[in-house]
């Protein structure tokens, strides 16, 4: 039998090695996909899931680093949700980027995987030498049912193309990962709705017991006072008047508390709930209200959102009832590591020179302060230099636990 020449034999060996390498990559890709699918079914902590996923993708693609970015609450930025292999200074710099930024923006607009070998734009934007050391970067959009949820990036130190089977795996895993991100959002909305349902149930129970009892007591105290008037007993009349006043205040406070409990938080979150509140404010109060959100990604728990909403709702209620204002402003911003929620008006102010401060809503302020303490924050109230009053709720972005 005629033997192959050494050159032909080497070529055949190389072809077998390449085919074996491709088969090995396919098997590894299938293993990763299987692991990701199993993880999605058992992992409910989105951050942990993203970090596990990222480690798999970095290992499979031979990347030196990777990040997962999810869409921010304002829909105009990408927020860093997980990272692996990035220097700390790069992580700090990349926490929030514009959705149209560079190759990431291009991948989002075209809805397809992009690979670039030119990262000079990233270096120019961030000033970080890390990007200049990378030979290429892959960007994979995350979409679910046609809705953009984010992207993930892989950074390579070697300039080599991504194998076809790995590229196909990128697409498949991006679909699974997008589903996980969407499920996390739906779980958050469901938790918010569950919390609101529980509060509604509590309000109904209080109304059916304590509120009705207090209403009955109010009627009986009125009858008692009328009976005492016939006997003209001065002390008894005074005491009954004190009871009547205290009962009136307690009943009014209870009704206000019930109203707050029955005001359901919007399942779409705090920003959407405040915008809805602002849109109907003039029709309810006759006061014009401008709303501005300068926080690109508002990151609060469901319970924190509820507390903030009720504080701002009470503050706006005070503006309508007590300020005499024609114009009010509601704004959200970040300052010195805190979220700052401000309600301002052009009314008479709360501290008038030479007069006692207007504390007709003192009970409401106490309730707002208690809510702020639960958020590890505080409330500041002052007159505006140009007239009117300003209430600011300050909440730490990363509160101590």
Number of H/I helices: 12
Q: What distance separates the N and C termini?
A: 79 Å
Please give the order of strands in the largest beta sheet. Answer: 3-2-1-6-5-4
Low-confidence residue ranges: 1-5, 353-361
Largest sheet: 6 strands, antiparallel
Give the name of the CATH superfamily of the largest domain.
GAF domain
Task: Count up the domains.
Answer: 2
Level-2 CATH architecture of the largest domain: 2-Layer Sandwich
* Assembly level: single chain
Under CATH at level 1, the class of the largest domain stands as Alpha Beta
What is the radius of gyration?
A: 31 Å
Order of helices and strands: HHEEHEHEHHEEHHHHEHEEHEE
Task: Give the beta-strand count.
Answer: 11
Q: What proportion strand?
A: 15-25%
Going by helix content, strand content and strand pairing, the class is alpha+beta
Shape: elongated
Note down, in words, how this protein is organized.
With 401 residues, the chain is an alpha+beta fold. The chain folds into two domains: 17-185, GAF domain (Beta-Lactamase, 2-Layer Sandwich), CATH 3.30.450.40; 266-401, Histidine kinase-like ATPase, C-terminal domain (Heat Shock Protein 90, 2-Layer Sandwich), CATH 3.30.565.10. The protein is built from twelve helices and eleven strands. The chain has helices at residues 6-42, 46-61, 88-93, 102-110, 120-126, 129-133, 164-231, 234-262, 270-279, 281-285, 302-323, 362-374; strands at 65-71, 77-84, 96-98, 114-116, 136-144, 147-156, 288-293, 327-335, 338-345, 378-383, 389-396. It has a six-stranded antiparallel β-sheet, with helices on both faces. The chain has a five-stranded mixed β-sheet with strand order 7-8-9-11-10. β7 (288-293), α11 and β8 (327-335) form a beta-alpha-beta unit. α9 runs parallel beside α11 (302-323) and α11 (302-323) packs antiparallel against α12. The longest helix is centred in the middle third of the chain and has 68 residues, at 164-231. The termini are far apart. The relative contact order is 0.07.
